[in-house]
Amino acid sequence: MKKCLVIVFSILLWACGSTKKVTSNTVKKPVNVVADKEVKVVPTKEVVKEVEKVVVKTQKTAKTNLNSTTLAYVKQYAPLAMDEMKKFKIPASITLAQGILESGSGRSELSAKSNNHFGIKCHKGWKGARVYHDDDAKGECFRKYKYPATSFQDHSLFLSTRFRYASLFQLKEDDYKGWAKGLKKAGYATDPRYPKKLISYIEKYQLDQYDKLVLKGVFKGIPVSEEKEEKEVVEEVVQPKEYNNHGAIHVVTDEDTLYGISKRYGISVDNLKTFNNLTGNTIHQGDVLKLKPHVKRKNYHVVQQKETLYSISKQYHITIDALKKMNGLQSNNLSIGQELKVE
To answer: Does the N-terminal or the C-terminal CB of the chain have fewer CB atoms within 10 Å?
Structure first.
């Protein structure tokens, strides 16, 4: 009888020990970790100059023509992507490529109106501002941010606090191909071409150069700015329009091809390539294609993404009222590609 009790007691001890071992090795998945506050991040002059050098080098060494809007996006947000890489070990090249792809280089409605560059949905427990947008289903809830920097920070938290992406952080920090393929494998995107699209953007715009700046210690990080925002005249966000005052444009979607666009507008593929300085047939989602030849005119400014009368007036050192009077404008609304007389 005593022997039986000893055996039973031993089995119970073994079972308890086994249970503790399994529990201690179980990785718990954090729930709803998000950026705790909105922050305005302003890169230092040194960082801006370093990024500008890389952009100029990219333009000089690129094997194909680069989209000016995408280059502008890289120039503006590379400091944020590098800052996130320094903090979270996510390649800046991956963050930038995802931003370009998912926000249409900052031109999508979601990024323009909500500063949501990565299409992150509200998810359970989200207490911040929100906006509703058609995606996989109609009227889905997406996070809305005051500053783009918060969107970039939330993107880093989204990847670094979810167990299914844990294996990506075992890769080398400059292994953008491994990250691109790993994101798809982990279920980040349903598009089977998602890794190829990210890699294509990284290699076309040489985004891996920003990874190197971080890894070599050239990039030191960005301090959080506490300075107040400049007061601007409230104006509508500049949005692409299919037709504007100097000619027609088409914003490329994920399903577009040059051939399909040429058929839609009755323009030959060769003319499309000539109007847009294309050497090949490759186009990317978010690219803006001109449908008519554009002739540059002296003393005129062509409106770019996110520009306003306020920002243009500061650039040319003239008042908003003078700009409106010179161009016969009745409101402050502008459209991408619109020509404004500035002298």
So the answer is: N
Residue for token pair 């027609």: 248
DSSP string, 295-316: ---TTEEE--TT--HHHHHHHH
The SS3 of residue 77 is helix
Confirm if 40 and 225 have CB atoms less than 8 A apart.
yes
Through-space distance between the first and last CA atoms of the chain, rounded to whole angstroms? 105
In this structure, is the dihedral angle defined by the CA atoms of residues 21, 23, 26 and 30, taken in order, positive or negative?
negative
Rg of the chain over all Cα atoms, to the nearest angstrom: 25
pLDDT digits (tens, 9 = 90+) for 117-150: 998 888 777 788 888 876 666 678 889 998 999 9
Does residue 107 sit in the same domain as residue 211?
Answer: yes
Q: State pLDDT tens for residues 271-308.
A: 888 887 787 777 777 777 877 775 556 677 877 767 78
**To which residue do tokens 């491994």 refer?**
178
* CATH number of the domain that residue 203 is part of: 1.10.530.10
Domain that holds residue 188: 40-121+147-225
Instruction: Tell me the H-state helices in 186-332.
Output: 194-204, 208-215, 258-265, 269-275, 309-316, 320-327
337 and 255 in a single domain? The answer is: no
